[in-house]
Specification:
alpha/beta; two-stranded antiparallel sheet; 10 strands; hydrolase; NTE
Length: 347
């Protein structure tokens, strides 16, 4: 059964995902055919794909906000700049970890990593991938990664929250690429969690880590300045995109599983395979992808309450991120405890 790991956006809240991933890969010995990362998830996905868990945990438990982001003059940024912060520190971390050697190791492993970005010029969701033969996206455009530098820029673009961090020209000065002037930002602008991407890649069991809270209690704070209002607006936007992504994907999966249940019931009642082919046959490839598909399992791993890290996850506090790693491990343990016997047969 093809397994996919999907990690949503959330900035420093990605530490929660690190805790989940670490237990999935060490306690349950899971490996994934497909790994989809959005924003902070794009930073995590390649390391998760290569099982470099110590590097991953160090990244999410040792850096501070000042290590990654540098605030710019607010007035100058609004009138003359393209972001409220520079991200030189984050860029340095990306280059330090995702070296040419790392990229070559990733390719040699056969890991199919998908990194989501949003193109400002075309407004498309553009997915950069190491998959040598990716499926054509029905609601996004796929770009095969052609070099280590393009890979690093795609990671950086996916993690670049618009307005707060500068856009990235992924293809600038790179031979064999298109639209070198196009600017790319956080994939979460279009899709918070790439469940649909994993489905179109053929995954049958999806382990989805969402960094938004399952239960979002009202915030009693008063928002009295421009930056605070902007940050909270981003948080509202993220919640909305997350809810929509999850609802649409669940409906899609429910339909696939329902069709499989109907087919099984009809066959048990004596309907022949030839008759089933007539009933469910269609020349429309969109219908074929739904009707002739094996059942899909969807696992949602999500914090019950809002995580630390501030709106948008732009506050990186090592102590709080260490706590979030533990919360991720605990959330997975609680999820597994609720499963029926046999449902953790993930081998």
């Amino acid at each position: 059964m093809k397994k996919a790991l999907i990690i949503s956006g959330g900035g420093s809240k990605g530490a929660f995902a690190v805790g989940v991933v670490k237990d999935l890969e060490t306690t349950y010995r899971l490996t994934f055919d497909t790994v989809v990362g959005t924003s902070t998830g794009a930073l995590i996905a390649p390391l998760a794909a290569l099982n470099q868990l110590d590097v991953l945990e160090t990244l999410y438990t040792s850096v501070t906000t000042d290590d990654l982001l540098e605030a710019q003059n607010l007035g100058a940024s609004i009138w003359n700049g393209n972001s409220l912060y520079t991200a030189n520190g984050l860029g340095s971390k990306v280059r330090q970890i995702y070296t040419d050697a790392f990229y070559n190791q990733l390719l040699a492993s056969g890991a199919k990593v998908y990194l989501t970005t949003t193109c400002l010029q075309s407004q498309e969701l553009v997915v950069y991938t190491t998959d040598p033969d990716p499926a054509a996206g029905t609601y996004y455009r796929t770009e095969k990664i052609k070099s280590a530098e393009q890979f690093r820029r795609a990671v950086m673009a996916s993690a670049s929250q618009p307005v707060f961090m500068p856009p990235v020209r992924i293809n600038k000065d790179l031979p064999g690429t298109n639209n070198p002037a196009f600017q790319y930002v956080d994939g979460g602008t279009r899709e918070y969690a790439g469940i649909g991407i994993a489905l179109e890649a053929g995954a049958q069991e999806l382990f989805t880590i969402l960094l938004s809270a399952r239960n979002n209690a009202p915030d009693q704070s008063s928002y009295n300045d421009l930056l605070a209002i902007l940050l909270q607006t981003v948080a509202v936007f993220i919640t909305d995109v997350a809810d929509n992504d999850l609802f649409a994907s669940r409906q899609y999966i429910h339909f696939i599983n329902y069709i499989n249940q109907v087919k099984a019931a009809m066959k048990a009642d004596g309907i022949t395979d030839a008759a089933l082919d007539r009933y469910f046959g269609s020349t429309n490839p969109d219908y074929q992808n739904l009707i002739n598909r094996a059942p899909v399992k969807l696992h949602i791993l999500q914090p019950d309450a809002a995580l630390d890290g501030g709106p948008g996850g732009l506050v990186f506090d090592p102590a709080k991120m260490q706590q979030m790693v533990q919360l991720g491990k605990t959330a997975l343990q609680h999820y597994v405890a609720r499963l029926r016997p046999g449902e953790t047969d993930w081998a």
